[in-house]
Amino acid sequence: MSIEASVIIPAFNRVHQVKLTLASLENQTYPLDRFEVVIVNDGSSDELEQFIKDYQAESPFPLIYTSTKKQRGRAATRNQGVKHSNGPILIFCDSDFVVFPTFIETFINGHDSKENVSLSVVPESWIGAYTHYYPEFSSWEKDMMKTRLTPYELWKNSFLRSSEIISIVTPEDIRERNYQKLRLVSDWLLHEEVKEECKKTDVAPWMLFITRGVSVGKKYFLRAGGFNEEFFHYGLEDWELGYRLSKIGVEFRSIDNTVGYHQEHPISFRGVDGNAENLKKIFKRHGLSDPEICMMALHHPWKDIYGYKNSLRKIKEQTSHIISKPLLAKKNHDQIIRLKTNETLHLDTPNPADNQVPFYYWDYHPTFETDQFTKSVTHSHIGETDCMWLNEIPYGGWGEPSGLIFYLSTFKLDKPTHIHFFLHFADDAAIVYLDGKPIAYKGGYFERGIVENGYDLPPENGTLFLEKGKHTVVIEAVNAYYDNSANRAGVGFTLIDWTGGTKLVSTSNINQWSSTGYVKLPPKGTYQTTGKYHVLLQSIFLDQNNVSVKKHLQIQVD
After folding, report:
1. Taking the alpha carbons of 38, 42, 44, 50 in that order, is the dihedral positive or negative?
2. How far apart are CA 535 and CA 518, in angstroms?
3. Rounded to whole angstroms, what are the CA distances from 406 to 355, 420, 426, 524?
4. Per-residue pLDDT tens for 545-554?
5. Tell me: the pLDDT tens digits for 143-177?
6. Contact between residue 423 and residue 440 where contact means Cβ atoms under 8 Å apart
7. How many CA atoms, within 13 angstroms, populate the side-chain half-sphere of residue 33?
8. What's the pTM value of the predicted model, to 2 decimals?
């Protein structure tokens, strides 16, 4: 039978809890040969690796084991698990989540009814179970456990003198389906009104994407780019991915019944609370134009879900009558240019004056004619790492003229590949196009004009899924400073195979690149497909450092 779902379980020093989680997966009502479990050891120092290797020999379901060797964090660990998975449905499950027999079946049925859905065990499974006593429990955690276990004669004062972990619920209890014992040591962690708020999806529906237990189609996961591996410390890496999934059409639903219990452990086991640090990374990647992002600065949703969601509802209510008309939806462009497919595009734009530098922002640029890229490039001679400059004296550093440069590189993939890209340097501004589409922007001069005129500004880094075949990278770089003696128009960019880590294109390898040299108009090119394309032309006045939007152009290709 083919694998229909992959359960991804990251683990760091959690062998006691993993034993119960795996035992609970043995009891599934769904056929055990139609799902697989992928355990990713995130550099644990306990006996997790030996236990898993021993367990593999007798596992009743397909079990894949992989290790990061050293700790890389939850985001990178889950990504590694996905790379080793075979199922079209991904179910992310925490290592400390004991699941009920209908766990897998519930997810499979939900995806059978709707492909672009993400199902979450939150909030109905936000229940804590004291399956183990930990000497590392704080005083109040020990008191909470004692209060819960004492009425059922499961608490012993001798626990307090133990320096070892003590099992309250054993793998045998789970295999024998002694769920009554599990319920006795469990307690709700959310009030009913909080649970009801969590279930609502009228605003920020992606908040249901919490990796205690959550599913998504693998193709949507790859399309969104997976977890952001810049998130190392605990917190927000699942919401950040959920936000991106919402932007590509994934719908979020809460599972209406309880399908598992969280195994309580010392809060200290989570490691450093990275919410504040990771929130800054969210702002950097996504900007502050979306209320769902910027409102997180005022109302931290993990602390104040009511304040956060109600503020979004107020914004939604106050702006519901406003009809958004972004640039790409405008009917009255400054100019409409009509072309046939494969007809060379000549932009009828005025050449900027000597005190102006142009910048073109395309929603999809034409296929530029490669015979216009005749200049070679060189490494920087002023210390920037892995950066390239135009290879003409005195270029390669200080003293370049103000102006615009286009760089070109191509690469070939032998198979569909998940790639990661990073535009780490731009002086003064640069935008990267992959196969004609903008994927990365860095700089300060033109950012405001781009956003204010209705374009989405791509982040400096991200991940994409590319099909087999030839691909083209074009970098538009601009030098815009009135003092030429301090000028340079270099860029630093890397695109790697996300699975194997191989650099496919990088400015550290100057032999991969060619350039137009400094130009005032973009290279000539053609469109092979009919449709409407758009370009925003801006100029910066060097003596004023002021950006002016010059023209909105629509290119109609018949």
Report:
1. positive
2. 20
3. 20, 22, 13, 12
4. 567 777 888 8
5. 999 999 999 999 999 999 999 999 999 999 999 99
6. yes
7. 2
8. 0.65
